[in-house]
Amino acid sequence: MLIVELTVLLYSGIIIATGLLFGKIAKYLKLPNVTGYLTGGIIIGPSILNIIKSDAIPGLELISVVALGFIAFTIGNELKFSYFKKVGTKPIVIAFFEATFGVLLVLAGLLAYFMITGSLNNEHLRFSIVLASIAAATAPASTMMVIRQYKAKGKLTETLMAVVAIDDSVAVLLFGIGIAIANAINPDVVHASALMQILSPVKEIFISILLGGGMGAILVLATKWFTGRGNRISLVVMSVFITIYLTEHFGGSSILGSMTLGMIFANFSKKNEEVNGLVYFITPPIYIMFFVLSGVELQINVLLTVGVFGIIYMIFRFVGKYLGATTGSVITKQEPNVSKYLGFSLIPQAGVAIGLSLVAAQVLPEEMGAQVRAIILASSVIYGLIGPVVTKYTLRKAGEITIKG
């Protein structure tokens, strides 16, 4: 047992060293650090050098869970009621349009392909609905890291953070509706269960908000009692850890729960700015490990399995996200920079989408389920590498990145 634990420490050290090295290389190439971390992970992972063996990945997955919790907590801290009082429901409207357009355009593209090839049937219709329903999800982690690295500030950055935070809730709802429809047209499934399948994601969101909000209230009160800087950092770590456990244990989302935790703390604690400044200094190694490990898990060989469906998915998802974000921005009368650039910053897709693909694989026949899984994994590789670069470019074009690099 001790040898196994020491091996985990060795791998963790290798992962951090890889992140530092490739982060520096990315900086010299004027690329976001995230792109360097992911690239380094792919290189040391099973796909190329195999320094981190595939059988070691399950033992390191807790790192990803913890990192996503802290990332979600950070995003939640940006969701202040004063901001929503000022902008109203605009981010919610934009999130709805960009997520819905992403789903609808992927669905249209897949159905068009099956109709053109004369192969549209019940199974292919269900496959199209299930795969398209995953297109709504956007990964907040890489977006947040780019904003943090370049200290981006401005209207586009504010809107992007709010939309990305809301996006997961919309994505889970749309996925639940998609799964319910796919099951409703499946002759092997009792149709009466469709309502419960639609309500299931609502239950997941409710549980996440309830538990995250409860832990947020505890954190607010505890930071009044414990005044030392070390104590307050420890309180945040404790709160994130327990929120992750409770939400996962009771069928919620650790990401949504941690976002709620951060949002409650940001809005009800007078010490939130001070405490977040302290937390900022303990999270870099966690984030480095998360993104490098994400690269380790992204196996290059899955790119060979996606075929035409993967190409349709990736192209139509991007077009849908862009058109949806632009439409939502125009309807809510956003500034030109937001309308023009927001859609380009919604490319990344990873954790939530991969999780949804596992559920999707249980709904479809085995072969189609495996294909959905492969497409989502492959798109995560591509989106993960190009997404941060595009986000940096759009923020720079919008004039919200003021530092060099």
What would you note in describing this structure?
The protein has one domain (64-290, 300-397): Na+/H+ antiporter like fold (Up-down Bundle). Helices cover 77% and strands 0% of the residues. The protein contains 17 helices and no strands. Helix 5 crosses helix 8 and helix 9 (194-225) crosses helix 11.
By DSSP, the count of extended strands is 0
Q: What is the CATH T-level topology?
A: Na+/H+ antiporter like fold
Poorly predicted tracts of residues: none
Could you spell the SSE succession in H and E letters?
HHHHHHHHHHHHHHHHH
**Biggest β-sheet description:** none
What is the element layout, followed by pairings?
Layout (H helix, E strand, L loop, with lengths): L1 H27 L4 H12 L12 H21 L3 H7 L2 H27 L5 H12 L6 H11 L4 H30 L9 H32 L3 H21 L4 H15 L3 H8 L4 H14 L9 H25 L4 H6 L9 H13 L2 H32 L8
List keywords for this structure.
Na+/H+ antiporter like fold, 17 helices, globular, 405 residues
Give a quick rundown of the structure.
With 405 residues, the chain is mostly helical. The chain is built from 17 helices and no strands.
